[in-house]
Design brief:
The structure is a homodimer of 423-residue chains.
Chain A: E1 7-13, H1 21-34, E2 38-44, H2 48-52, E3 56-58, H3 64-68, H4 93-104, E4 107-114, H5 116-132, E5 137-142, H6 158-176, E6 183-189, H7 196-199, E7 213-215, H8 223-237, E8 239-245, H9 270-287, E9 291-295, H10 299-302, H11 309-327, E10 333-340, H12 351-355, E11 358-365, H13 366-369, H14 390-396, E12 408-409, E13 412-413
Parallel strand pairs in A: 1-2, 1-4, 4-5, 5-10, 6-8, 6-9, 7-8
Antiparallel strand pairs in A: 2-3, 10-11, 12-13
Helix pairs in contact in A: 1-11
């Protein structure tokens, strides 16, 4: 334990929401409220913008019961932003303002809960405060359904979306096979550059084959090959379920979703209905079969009712560890996970292969984390680039275990309602 | 108790699936398996087509444990069809074939599990068997997420989809308010002619206002009025969440989803992305704000993981009651529900208003049920035609209570896997 630093803490949330980002925020808030030397706990409204605009909510004023509900309330309860901080050497206006606010509220602890860009923000603020000699400990708490943060085994938020996707694909697969007339169903998952969420479609194949073809942005997409794959599957099975990442792209790097009228897709209005609708239409035109495009859209990152219990616990633990590390004198790091896994079992998931999973928090230097992207390893994608191999199952299966402790009120989610008292 | 009729039973499923149609089928199967005078229980593959094609699965051969899982396995486990039976006076080919199969397997009990058309099929088969003097008791078991069957208080399947829709809208609403930049989100629900499912968006407003505008097919849609409604809401709140039925239509009866290029919507490719995408695009063009269209698609009728416990129990009860009624000598009816409700409380749902709910099965003559459609009553829709009133809340709230007993395996649904042994 280093020397005690007395002062207030600010927690901000940034980037796209997840169904468990509030569990992380609550890990920070709860631990900070319980810490003697943390004099006040503030929540920044709309991330760093809330600091810049002097809009801070006093977490000490909230009812314990409502705060507890943050464990299963999706999205960013404090509000979020996508605000890119300038290089302080070029323009330090924002940094001066942040320092002013930190001084005004005697802020000595700053936690930022987000993805790549948020870790970059964290890093820049930390370095600036050091430079100007203002003592403030800074800690990043990761969240991103995209699971693309460097260093950490996985990111809080990924597993809950993965569980949503696998569950939904299992259900949709049951729906699409009911008639003897056949159908090709295209399911679009989020993840513009990294295919982790789309790969989660493979989890739907553990108990029985539900998803026939899976296309990640890690591989170059070829429309003719895709149509041939779908045709082959449809002819063999009479049905075909396909998962595609929103980020699939052609060899020249252009997104398939943005493709203009061409001989291949035949029209130029893909932006209207998104990728799934466009691919469904292309398959329909080429193969003449019944098709349906389903975009999982915001549902996949907001679906708290089917969040992973493991993800919720770990998200809370990450927030808690961030505050504990700062109390111990640490700064300028991101909390991540280091995991060990049970015996590899691939698609033949066993109790042993899941039970061997252990997860510990670990600190990663912010400068290592910011602005890198982690992709699905090549060895977890099949040669043809249309399926996911057992290595991914071993990796992801332990993460989606356990159910949410979500309380219901009148049969519907009982989400946290914060008072949001401004400082 | 009428005289005992010994013989086999056939259960068939028809029309679009729901997340609880298998609970009804299981109500039939379980009760039939336990009945002494029912000698064999067959499941027809792909509904009435399975009878015509002599493709019957022997339910007696299935493992009890897997059959039990039908309680929470979505979609039609036996397969479904959309097969319209001809008028037997015009063409009795199918009826002769059905009689032949009934005789072959000594079928004396026939249960059909479906919507409007299925009740019509039931009715025709029943009348034909009577005409030719073949003793066979026929009973319809309703299912339809559309909730549009005549006579019964509500239809098995509706409540689970309603719960899915309300839960998803609450979650999506949390997601869309995180930024200070604002967004208009259009959520498209199923129900081509009846607006019951879209009205369920109002259930998301009980704890706090999550869905701002709701448009049902019961009212004529006016694009200019719609855009004005959205603009007003967006300007007041900074965000706007809209639920629309896939069946909204203009004064001339044409579906909004099928509208071609016009001054109002500005393009002619609505079929690509569906109604939600088209409306989102129209709003974007007119108001210049960020928009998103979300089509709940098959997810809303397959979402067994968030099915209503009440719906599951009632669906099973309907199937059970069908067999019990036939054993009692009844025929040519559909099992429906007669309900009493607690004190009206509208949007201020109280424990009392829910606790007073009671539901009993009741027989309705098939000829009364077939080919009618029940719509959302006018007095439950507001004057402006863009919101749902408290009467609907009193009606629907008790139906979505309780959670599914779904068992999970490795964190994912453990759906029934039937052996499907052909007779």
């Amino acid at each position: 334990m280093s020397e005690e630093l007395r002062g207030a803490l600010i927690i901000g949330q940034s980037g796209g929401p997840t169904s468990v980002i509030n569990a992380s925020a609550y890990g920070v808030i709860r631990t900070a409220l319980d810490a003697d030397c943390i004099t006040k706990v503030y929540g920044a409204h709309y991330g760093i913008k809330g600091v810049l605009n002097d809009e801070l909510f006093v977490m000490d004023e909230e009812d314990r019961e409502e705060l507890d509900k943050l464990m299963y309330t999706p999205s960013s309860a404090l509000g979020s932003c996508r605000y890119k901080m300038k290089d302080p050497d070029v323009d330090d206006t924002d940094y001066k303002r942040i320092l002013e606010i930190f001084k005004k509220y005697d802020v000595r602890y700053f936690c930022y809960n987000g993805g790549n860009d948020s870790m970059d923000t964290c890093n820049k603020i930390s370095k600036y405060m050091k430079k100007v000699g203002y003592e403030c400990r800074v800690m990043g708490v990761p969240k991103t359904i995209d699971n693309d943060l460097y260093g950490t085994d996985h990111c809080p938020g990924f597993a809950s979306s993965a569980k949503y996707i696998a569950t939904s694909i299992m259900e949709v697969a049951h729906d699409t096979v009911v008639y003897d007339t056949g159908m090709v169903t295209i399911i679009e998952c989020m993840g513009r550059h990294a295919g982790w969420l789309t790969a989660a479609a493979a989890l739907a194949n553990v108990s029985e084959r539900n998803c026939d073809l899976i296309y990640l942005p890690e591989k170059v997409f070829d429309m003719d090959k895709f149509l041939a794959d779908v045709e082959k599957c449809y002819k063999e099975k009479g049905n075909c379920i396909v998962a595609v990442s929103e980020g699939i792209h052609y060899e020249d790097g252009s997104f398939v979703s943005e493709a203009k009228a061409s001989a291949t897709d035949g029209f130029g209005h893909a932006q209207l209905g998104g990728l799934a609708a466009m691919l469904a239409n292309t398959v329909k035109e080429k193969l003449g079969c019944k098709t349906r495009g389903i975009e999982l859209s915001l549902l996949q990152r907001a679906g708290a009712h089917v969040a992973s219990g493991t993800d919720i616990s770990e998200s809370f633990a990450a927030g808690k560890a961030a505050v504990e590390a700062m109390l111990d004198g640490e700064t300028d790091h991101m909390v991540g996970f280091e995991c060990t896994r049970g015996e590899a079992a691939g698609y033949d998931v066993t109790e042993q292969s899941i039970a061997g999973y252990e997860c510990h928090t670990k600190l990663f230097p912010l400068s290592d984390v910011a602005n890198y992207e982690k992709h699905v390893p090549d060895e977890w994608i099949n040669e043809e680039g249309n399926d996911i191999l057992g290595g991914f199952i071993d990796y992801a299966m332990p993460l989606i275990q356990g159910e949410t402790p979500m309380k219901k009120k009148n049969g519907l989610p009982d989400f946290a309602k914060l008072k949001k008292v401004l400082a």
